[in-house]
Specification:
By secondary structure, the protein is of the alpha+beta class. It contains two helices and five strands. The structure holds guanosine-5'-monophosphate (5GP). Guanosine-5'-monophosphate (5GP) binds next to loops.
Length: about 120
């Protein structure tokens, strides 16, 4: 049994967050350390540590994460200008919190996708 993270406590509302959306499959809340004007995390309610742990049973929740990203982008008024969705996985992906999360970043030009190596 892999230990749950702080995100499970946020989902259960045992810890405070600026929550924008919740349903039976996913929860969305503002990142505590925003990297762009809008920075929201969208997470499955079930504790799935990384993309490498995903099974076919998770497909509904993972699909819902995209629908909720679209809804929040519209609600926040950034749809027309565009935005970026990011999911980090594991050590090389620099994932810090081992509970799958989609970063929704926007409200400004978020910049190049990756820093060039040279
Ligand atoms: P990762 O690097 O794992 O893809 O991203 C983890 C994200 O979670 C970071 O952007 C970090 O700021 C955010 N984060 C970590 N702890 C908390 C917390 O307790 N509350 C909120 N709202 N965000 C958090």
């Amino acid at each position: 049994m892999i230990e749950e993270t702080i995100f499970s406590k946020i989902i259960r509302k045992e810890l405070p967050s600026d929550m924008l959306y919740q349903d039976e499959l996913v929860t969305a809340f503002r990142d505590i350390n925003p990297q762009r004007s809008l920075h929201v995390l969208i997470v499955p309610n079930r504790h799935i540590p990384t993309v490498d742990d995903v099974t076919s049973e998770d497909e509904a929740a993972l699909g819902r994460m995209f629908s909720v990203a679209r809804k929040i982008a519209r609600d926040e008024g950034i749809s027309a200008d565009g935005y970026r969705l990011v999911v980090n996985c594991g050590e090389h992906g620099r994932q810090e919190v081992p509970h799958i999360h989609m970063h929704l970043l926007g409200g400004e030009d978020v910049g190049p996708m990756l820093n060039r190596r040279n």
